[in-house]
Amino acid sequence: MITSKEIRQSFKDFFQSKEHRIVPSAPMVIKDDPTLMFTNAGMNQFKDIILGNAPVKYPRVADSQKCLRVSGKHNDLEEVGHDTYHHTMFEMLGNWSFGDYFKKEAIAWAWEYLTEVLELPKDRLYVTVFEGAAEESLERDNEAAAYWEEYLSKERIINGNKHDNFWEMGDTGPCGPCSEIHIDIRPEDERVKTDGLLLVNQSHPQVIEIWNLVFMQYNRKADGSLEPLPAKVIDTGMGFERLCMAVQGKLSNYDTDLFQPIIRKIGEISNALYGEDPAKDVAMRVVADHLRTIAFSITDGQLPSNAKAGYVIRRILRRAVRYGYTFLGMHESFMYRLIPTLIEVMGDAYPELAAQQILIEKVMKEEEESFLRTLETGIRLLEKNLPEQEGGVLSGEVAFQLYDTFGFPLDLTELILREHGMTVDVGGFNTEMEKQKQRARNAAAVETGDWTKVRDGEPEFTGYDETETETRILRYRAVKQKNREFFQIVLSRSPFYAEMGGQVGDTGWLIPEEGEKTDIFDTKRENNLAVHFTRRLPANIEGTFTARIDTEKRTATECNHTATHLMHEALREVLGMHVEQKGSYVSPELLRFDFSHFGKMTPEEIREVERRVTAKIRSNYPIEEHRHVPIEEAKAQGAMALFGEKYGDDVRTVRFGSSIELCGGTHISSTGRIGTFRIITESAISAGVRRIEAVTAKVCEDYLYAKEDALVEIKNLLHNVPDVMQGIRRLLADNEEMEKEIREYVKEKTEQLKQRIIDKKQDIQGITLFKLIMPIGSVDVVKDIAYQLKGQFPEKMMFVAGTSADGKPSLTVMLSDDLVAGGLHAGNMVREAARQIQGGGGGQPHFATAGGKNADGLIAAVESIVQKLNDY
Ligand code: ATP
Ligand code: MG
Prior knowledge:
By secondary structure, the protein is of the alpha+beta class. 39% of the residues lie in helices and 26% in strands. The chain starts with a helix and ends with a helix.
């Protein structure tokens, strides 16, 4: 049997033989595109080339791309596990032409690869072509159909509508017709019974689409109209797992050598056999699939978390844990134990898995355990609340709350309820879900206008060398977000750094030759294009400007960026080489750095890192920057490259002393200019990942001054003792001494008070009555006296006190046990009497207290209690 590794390689070899450049997969997690969280198709990494924002380096490219379809436009999550051919994460094989070959070659090569290289039977293949759309004045794609007719008979070429056969990048931008290749993998006997032609696009699990060839030939404008695309693009995508299934003669993706070892391992751990119980099979497929997604997103730098992309990943993990819990009886973490098997299957093609094995396992285990705890709390909560639900129907709101806060999918809630003969108001649940989606849409809704072109030209970044640059406007457009309007401007030359790699974008001004200057409040990168944000367009769009950045902010940011590099190196020196960057944020105020490490840093380690960074600052290393280094050479020099980053063939390296990193950001000219450095916080952000925040330069100076000021203030409070520490120690010792004295004093006073009460005792019908009416700050003193009296006078005794502190009255009653046995009840007595002080209280039969608001009623309240004795 030809293995999946061989199939992946054969695809690359084939397109290499057709003069394609084979490129690596881009990371699955996307960091610099506001419209997309995860790579969902092979074309994502070429979006800037297709949009014309980046030059075409290789007109023909092919690769295998890690894709994830769990959010936004492509969301297959709910299918995964239930069917046999959709995954959350999958590999997409693809070939591209940027303004080079078009439909003829794309079709010929796809056919050649499938039928000649892989020898898939021709009579099992079908293709679709775009049927045309009258409302767009688009004709049938007869061009593609004619090429297909060279290989297949006409009846195997099926017309498809706009939904299936017209591809669009987004609301605007490149688009065009597409042709899909479908394959019928059913066993012979079934094929005889039903013609495969009838099953294409009918969601039959064994008559499925494997390859989509997109022919981009139009550009969709904001008003909805189409114009021809100047450089036509071929963009193809083939599901690797589906291809393996077809080539290996299997009926399910999960029966291929990509999944079987994992499925077997799941069976081993959970004591289940794949193929025996349909419910267990679904669960095993879910776990096998989601395992890959979580492992790859961790290696690509997206850890599970409670926001955005991290939350999507967390929810996928929870889905797998939940299937394992419910259907495989896995009540303990287990997925992390599958990682070694995953590495056996995919480790060769994706070395990042083995390189980050420990991190993946730790993060997974911790996430699994924390969700299992939530799951059990949630289940208990739900079960406890069941009887209170009316009519056996759980409200949609509650079900949604369980979903939203406990991560309970609707089907889990339904399952638990079914066991109790109850149901969920699904309509209500969906309404809540829709409401939440609408809220999210409103918050995210952005309306972008078409670009208005002012002049031709390629934007150029001058900000590594200049802080102000002579420039002109190339294009601009209006953007509306949450009812606020602003403009985006593209400049011919610009010193403004556009936010990337954690470094925030520059702010500054566009200064015309005459007239008012325009504020630039942010600079961001959109598909590799630097866009400058402003609330107001300059008066003379056509004119010449000086683009000037706010150098104070830029310098502060640069100090933090360079310090980040120095700290990265120092962390590896102090903690070990397992330290790897997991995230970074650099602004004028601070630097934030996330890195892999498995325990809290000790104060000594933090101090040691600070010392080393400061030593590197004092060494005053000048920046050594190389803008076009071949990536292999940079790595050979020891430059730290991150998994999960997208690098071109040429990279920029930044060196300060022995620290060398691949980096596109801006830096201070020499480390000495950073001046000062301090770590201000060190914390955990998830299992195995720590976060440090640190400050440099003026911000650090202010931070240190604030600490000094606090010390001076303490000294002042201590009346300028020469030695502050000794002053504080003495204060604490004095305090302790005084507390001791107070305790003794109180004891003495209590004794005196008790004696006075005893002296004034009364006799009422043979019962000894002790009465106390006076202001007393401490109720504990009264309680203390009450118990002492009871000890001293165990028979026929009643103590009643009406005391007050700060105008707040309280009542206390203590009775000897024989009186309680005779029917008196202290709790009832105070409760009743408390009305006269506008309060309430109660307690045991022998001892009770009450508090109130009206101190004027205190005497009356005490008398009403004494009266009870008279009635006794
Ligand atoms: P389908 O209709 O089967 O969901 P699609 O139209 O969404 O497929 P495309 O967007 O054209 O697929 O993606 C190109 C190829 O990627 C498909 O032909 C298919 O082989 C594969 N593919 C798409 N989605 C998935 C998935 N969720 N899991 C595995 N492979 C997929
Ligand atoms: Mg799909």
